[in-house]
Write a structure and sequence with these properties.
- By secondary structure, this protein is of the alpha+beta class.
- It has one domain: Porin, CATH 2.40.160.20.
- The protein is built from one helix and nine strands; from the N terminus they run αβββββββββ.
- It has one helix at about 5-35; strands at about 45-55, 65-75, 90-100, 105-120, 125-140, 150, 155-160, 165-175, 185-195.
- The chain has an eight-stranded antiparallel beta barrel.
- A hairpin with a 3-residue loop joins β7 and β8.
- The longest helix is centred in the first third of the chain and has 35 residues, at about 5-35.
- The radius of gyration is 18 Å and the shape is globular.
- The N and C termini lie far apart (about 40 Å).
C-alpha cells in the first residue's frame, strides 16, 4: 500500500470515529431530553473515555489484534425505562471505534448497552461485573463469517479507582446469531482503561 492510499484510509477512519462519537452523544442527550420532558430525573452519573486493546482467542480464526477508542455513559437507572433499580446496579451505554493492528489495518466500530453490578464503593475502589450486548461493524471477515455487521455480546469484570479511573477485562464475542448461513464466531479478550469526567 502506498503512502497516499494509507493517508486516505487513515482519514476515513478518523471521520468514521468522529461520527460514531457524535451519534452516541446525540443518543444520550436525546434520552435525557425526553426524560426531562416527562418529568423523570435521569442522565449519566458520569461520562468515560478511554481505549481498548484486544486479541482474538478463537482457534479456528485468523490471529487478530485491535485497538479502539471508547466513549461511555454510566447511568444509575436504565436510560430507557423510568424505574429506580437497586443501588448496586448501573447501566452503561458505550460506543467504540478503532482499527485492527498489523499488516492490514481494518476499521472496527461498535455500540452497545451493558448492565453493571457493583460492590459497595469505598473511598478509592469499586469492583463490578459487566454483561451486555450491542452491534459491531468490522471492515473484514474471517473465513466462514457471513456478515460485516454482527451481534457483540460481552461479559467482564472491572474496577474504578478514586471514582476517576477505570480498568476492565472483557470476553467479547462476534457473530451474526445465524442470520446468515455462514456464522463463524470470533472470541476476543479485551482490556479497557480510561478516565471518568
Amino acid at each position: 500500500m502506498n503512502a497516499g492510499s494509507r493517508h486516505y484510509i487513515d482519514k476515513i477512519i478518523k471521520i468514521q470515529l468522529f461520527w460514531i462519537i457524535v451519534l452516541f452523544a446525540i443518543t444520550v442527550t436525546a434520552t435525557n431530553s425526553i426524560a426531562n420532558e416527562i418529568g423523570l430525573k435521569t442522565g449519566p452519573v458520569k461520562w468515560g473515555a478511554g481505549f481498548g486493546v484486544g486479541k482474538n482467542r478463537s482457534p479456528d480464526s485468523d490471529d487478530i489484534e485491535f485497538l479502539t477508542a471508547r466513549l461511555s455513559a454510566v447511568f444509575d437507572r436504565d436510560p430507557f425505562f423510568p424505574y429506580k433499580p437497586a443501588k448496586w446496579l448501573r447501566w452503561m451505554l458505550e460506543a467504540q471505534a478503532g482499527s485492527t493492528l498489523g499488516d492490514r489495518n481494518r476499521f472496527i466500530a461498535s455500540a452497545g448497552m451493558l448492565v453493571r453490578a457493583q460492590t459497595e464503593p469505598t473511598q478509592w475502589l469499586t469492583i463490578y461485573g459487566l454483561a451486555g450486548i450491542g452491534f459491531i461493524y468490522t471492515d473484514f471477515q474471517v473465513e466462514g463469517q457471513g456478515l460485516k455487521v454482527n451481534f457483540n455480546p460481552q461479559l467482564g469484570i472491572g474496577a474504578d479507582f478514586y471514582e476517576k479511573y477505570y480498568f476492565q477485562v472483557r470476553l467479547h464475542h462476534i457473530s451474526n446469531a445465524n442470520l446468515h448461513d455462514d456464522n463463524t464466531g470470533i472470541n476476543n479478550i479485551v482490556l479497557h482503561a480510561g478516565i471518568y469526567f
